[in-house]
Amino acid sequence: MPPEVTVDKLVLRQAIDDLNAAYAACIDADRLEDWPAFFTDPCLYQVVPRENVDAGLPLALIRCDSRGMLADRVVAHREANIFGPHAYRHLIGRAHIVGEDGALVEARTNYAVYRTWLDSASYGETVLYSVGEYRDRIAVSAGTARLVERTVVVDTARIDSLLATPL
Amino acid sequence: MTSTSDIDTSAAARRHATQVPYRLFYDQDVYDAEQRHLFRGPTWNFVGLAAEVPEPGDFKASFVGDTPVVLTRDRDGALHCWVNRCAHRGALVCREPRGNRNAHRCVYHQWTYDPAGRLRGVPFRAGIDGKGGAPADFDLARHGLQTLAVATYGDLVFAAFDPAVEALDDYLGAPMRAALDGIFNRPLTVLGHTRQYAAANWKLYAENVRDPYHASLLHLFHATFGFYRSSQPGRIHMDPRRRHCVLESWPADAKAEAARLAAEDVTSYRAKYTLADPSLVTGRPEFRGLQILSVFPGLVVQQIQNTLAVRQLLPKGVGRFELVVTLFGYADDDPELTAIRLKQANLIGPAGFISMEDGHATEIVQRAIADRTAAESVVVMGGYDAADRDDLVNEAAIRGFWQHYRELLGERVGHAPGGDRG
Q: B192 and A59: CB-CB below 8 Å?
């Protein structure tokens, strides 16, 4: 069905696209400490291989159900986990609003993430690292839009090397 | 305890057992010999959990070494494994990762097989109007799919190309069977899969899971957040041929730990960070400690806190491996316990707080030997032999792995037991 066009919906979509653009900029510029603020608390951020979604299996690669868990991911990223230095570049498609329930909006948005190595052996080498879809529930109110849930459904289920930085 | 009397302590043998030529990680001829004589030789290769194919007709595509195989369950509930290559002209018969069907039909010419791999139908076998078709003496029974021997231990399903392989129970050995019995003792529920693709030779990962020495040095999550105790007791337990490894550790006795900390500079053990949300590590008492059970050549069963998983290690060319992790619980888990397992899964897999480094560690070895060096690694922590150990600061099980590898392949890859390689 072609979508119904209303001014309200255009404004809403613009708000979600802006949220996604800011989200991408936050991660790609390595401002991970700001990343949890994109979510409500509690929240659900999970990265799920498409293989499990298709099979109806619940296992996620990353599953955080509070801002605290998101912050712990960031501390582990900075202080504990060891991986090759790299940068991400998110290309996020425009949001597709699939449902509205009061102030809660449900949207689906395609993403692609390119990963560029910044290490001594492979500096500047870029690969298409991950493609998939954000399945979001977003709380939109005057002045703010925050992620209540972001389920990253990863088509690229075979993770190249490892997954340290959030998608 | 296993006997150590068979360990040759001559200088040449000692050097041999403790220095591994990096060539074994980059040489195509070595890789090809492994495919033929190790993966397609007298070894039991993990191909799936019985719980992944619970119903008659269920199937799962997998690999033994480089060879695509399919694990199936027939109408009578029996498990089968066959090479996924049509007996006619070699096409993949099964093109989906998993599913359910009682007839497997090759799309190329619709030759059709049952779940046991027997050829059941050939289109136009009698030709059309008396022309064409199969020869009169064509015998369906002689054109089935190549089958592998199948055996199970608990829910673990193994397949072997070489029918002369020893019985699975004997292959696993008593220490591994005892450890597996502690996990595979009731029906399982599969919770999902993750896949990790590393630019490294598969044996670098086989070494990694037999290496308790790296645990507190490479994986800093526990130390960073104040969980790790360097004196944590543990042990390495092997079968008589040293090919498998039961690695266990468990929490230190509380009193002994307190005394040790009192005697040391406690401040150095005080973590700089605490978890903002400790629900990640709030589990339920279930197992004594941690278990990493490595079954030669490519299976790892792990129990870390309340996470239970099998890791299938698959070679993907000389400098690549894939790790397929399948998380499971028990059919009698309550919803809260399932939720705990799923949350603690943050610790494991390609994004795991205490596992993501392993993929990186294997890759930086592979990158460092890209010049096809003639150098060798040094595997001497905890001594020179491959005997069992009751500490976690040793590389005995890595020596055990190479001891058995040389028994299987030594002369074929220029790494024979007991002699100098020059």
A: yes
A148 close to A167: Cβ distance less than 8 angstroms: no
How many C-beta neighbours within 10 Å does residue A30 have? 12
**CA-to-CA dists, residue B143 to B86, B138, B370, angstroms:** 9, 9, 44
What residue in B sits closest to A79 (Cα-Cα)?
B224
The 3-state DSSP class for residue B319 equals coil
ipTM, interface predicted TM-score of the complex: 0.95
A161 touches chain B (CB under 8 A): yes
Of B223, B346, B350, the CB nearest to A159: B350
Q: How far is B157 from chain A (nearest CA, A)?
A: 21
| pLDDT on residue A6 | 78
Q: Side chain identity at B102, as an amino acid letter?
A: N
For B346, which of A62, A66, A158 is closest by C-beta distance?
A62
The CATH code of the domain at B11-25+174-413 is 3.90.380.10
Q: What is the pLDDT of residue B225?
A: 85
Q: To the nearest whole angstrom, how far is the Cα of B385 from the nearest Cα of chain A?
A: 31
- Cα distance between residue B93 and residue B150, in whole Å: 19
Give the other-Cβ count within 10 Å of B218's Cβ.
15
Residues of chain B contacting residue A68, judged by C-beta atoms under 8 Å apart: 275-277
Please list every residue in chain A whose beta carbon sits closer than 8 Å to the beta carbon of residue B359. 161-162
* The amino acid at B410: G
Locate the domains of chain B by residue range.
11-25+174-413, 45-152
What is the Cα–Cα distance from B117 to B140, expressed in whole angstroms?
11
Each residue's pLDDT tens digit, A49-94? 999 999 999 999 999 999 999 999 999 999 999 999 999 999 999 9
Q: Based on the number of CB atoms within 10 Å of its own CB, is B103 exposed (0-12), middle (13-18) or buried (19 or more)?
A: exposed
CB contact under 8 A, A158 and B195: yes
Interface check for A84 against chain B (CB to CB < 8 A): the answer is: yes
Instruction: Please report the pLDDT score of residue B268 as a whole number.
Output: 47
Of B191, B361, B367, the CB nearest to A57: B191
> B255: distance to nearest CA of chain A, Å?
28
B351 to chain A: which residues are within 8 Å by CB? 47, 61-62, 159, 162-164
β strands within B250-400, DSSP E: 290-295, 299-304, 307-315, 321-330, 376-378
Categorize the per-residue pLDDT at B421 as very low, low, confident or very high, splitting at 50, 70 and 90.
Answer: very low
Chain A: give the shortest CA distance to residue B201, in Å.
13
**Residues of A with CB below 8 A from B357's CB?**
81-83, 162
What values do phi and psi take at B255, rounded to 5?
Answer: -65, -45
Whether the Cβ atoms of residue B41 and residue B78 lie closer than 8 Å to each other: no
CB under 8 Å to B151, separation ≥6 — which residues?
B44, B157, B158, B160, B167, B168
Spell out the domain ranges in chain A.
Answer: 7-154
Helix B11-18 and helix B396-409, axial crossing angle in degrees, nearest 10: 100
| Spacing of C-alpha B337 from chain mean position | 26
CB count within 10 Å of CB A29 equals 11
The fold of the A7-154 domain, in CATH, is Nuclear Transport Factor 2; Chain: A, (3.10.450)
Q: Does domain B45-152 have CATH number 3.40.50.11290?
A: no
